[in-house]
Each structure stands twice: as structure tokens, then as C-alpha cells.
Design a protein that fits this description.
- By secondary structure, this protein is α/β, with parallel strands linked by helices.
- The chain has 10 helices and 5 strands; from the N terminus they run βαβαβαβαβαααααα.
- It has a 5-stranded parallel β-sheet, with helices on both faces.
- Strand 1, helix 1 and strand 2 form a beta-alpha-beta unit.
- The chain is globular, with a radius of gyration of 17 Å.
- The termini are far apart.
- It comes from Streptomyces griseoaurantiacus.
């Protein structure tokens, strides 16, 4: 997996680079000190994953994420934050980030987080992430995701709606398959259809949509 680390703090960039380069299946191919440089690095290097800090000069991580997602459908963005309830994280998820990770995460958590988003899954399993999405989807004043018009979920079948709700609750394909007692391949098909019908990019946007559509409510 090819990775770009974007953070305005040199110690953070170098620390993450050392940790990730120590993994046999990962290589840090570039670093960026601000959002504008992160966008340029992605355009130049075509990485699989970008570790993106939110609070950076020139162009913040939210806007950089939006530009990267719009220009490159393959590169996944994993947002880095210092606080587990960072007010900007929700907006980064809406911009297309595949999840977020705290900067004090262990080397194992960091590597696993990169693997999760690189595989196309959303990094939504930790309870803190579900709490964040629930809270900020409830409080957000911004409109819904542009591609997901109000009532769009009415196009989903009953099973697809059920799968969407379980995605929003942080379950993986394998966990959803176990819950519904079907093959994992069947769940992958359902997830693909949900994304196509709602006009969404990935599981993270699907989860955000489910909260905004009130298909999932704060527990």
C-alpha cells in the first residue's frame, strides 16, 4: 500500500512515516505540510491512502479531502485528529474521508486503520466514531450530501435499507452477513447497490446519509 502523510508538524509526519514503513505491506511515498501540497502529492504519486490532518495552513484537511475525492476516486483519505470529538471531523467525513483516527493511536491501530480504508471499508467500528457521527449528524446545519436527495432511500429494497442501517452502526460486511445469516458476497452486492442507488462514494458516506436521513438515531 502506497501512503502519503499530510500534517504540518514535522515530528508527526516523520513518526507516522517510520511506523508505517516498518510494516511489510506499506510504503510512505510522500509527505505534505499543508492541504494544497497534499492535493498535489496525490495527483503526482497516486497513493492508496492519505493520512490527512485537519488543521493545516493554506488549505485545511477538509477542503483538501474534498478536492482529492473529487479528482481521484481511488485514493482513500484517513483523517487524523487530536481530539475524539473534533468539531471538524464530521465535515471531513461528509467531504469524502473514509474514516478518522486519533493521533495517539498505537502503531497497530494506525496500520490496521490504513488497511481498513485501503480495502474499501469505512473506519467506523470504534464506538467513539459512531458517537461522533451521531452527534454531528444531529447538530450539523449543512445540507445533506448533494447526491442523496431527500427521500432517496425510498428507492432501496427492505433488505438494502437493513444493510444500510447496519453499515451506519459500524458493522463490517462479514458482521452484517453473520447478523442476516447470508453469504458475505451477498452483502457486498447489497452494499454496491445501496451506493449506486443513493449516488454515494463509499460506506462512510452511506453511514452519514443513514444518520442524516434518520434511519439511525442516537442511542
Amino acid at each position: 500500500m502506497r501512503i502519503v502523510v499530510a500534517d504540518d508538524q514535522m515530528m508527526v509526519r516523520e513518526g507516522f512515516s517510520v511506523l508505517l514503513n516498518a510494516m511489510p505491506d506499506m510504503e510512505v511515498v510522500g509527505e505534505a505540510v499543508n492541504g494544497r501540497e497534499a492535493v498535489a502529492r496525490v495527483r503526482e504519486l497516486k497513493p492508496d491512502v492519505v493520512l490527512m490532518d485537519i488543521r493545516m495552513p493554506e488549505l485545511n484537511g477538509i477542503e483538501a479531502t474534498r478536492e482529492i475525492v473529487a479528482a481521484d476516486g481511488r485514493t482513500k483519505v484517513l483523517v487524523l485528529t487530536t481530539f475524539d470529538l473534533d468539531e471538524y471531523v464530521y465535515q471531513a467525513l461528509r467531504a469524502g474521508a473514509s474514516g478518522f483516527l486519533l493521533k495517539d493511536a498505537s502503531a497497530r491501530q494506525l496500520a490496521e486503520g490504513v488497511r481498513v480504508v485501503a480495502s474499501g471499508e469505512a473506519l467506523l467500528a470504534p464506538s467513539v466514531t459512531r458517537r461522533l457521527i451521531t452527534e454531528f449528524s444531529r447538530l450539523a446545519e449543512a445540507p445533506r450530501l448533494p447526491a442523496a436527495a431527500p427521500g432517496a432511500y425510498g428507492e432501496l429494497t427492505e433488505r438494502e435499507t437493513e444493510v444500510l442501517i447496519l453499515i451506519a452502526q459500524g458493522l463490517s460486511n462479514a458482521e452484517i452477513a453473520g447478523r442476516l445469516v447470508v453469504a458475505e458476497s451477498t452483502i457486498k452486492t447489497h452494499v454496491s447497490r445501496v451506493l449506486v442507488k443513493l449516488g454515494l462514494r463509499d460506506r462512510t458516506q452511506a453511514a452519514v446519509f443513514a444518520y442524516e436521513a434518520r434511519l439511525v438515531t442516537p442511542g
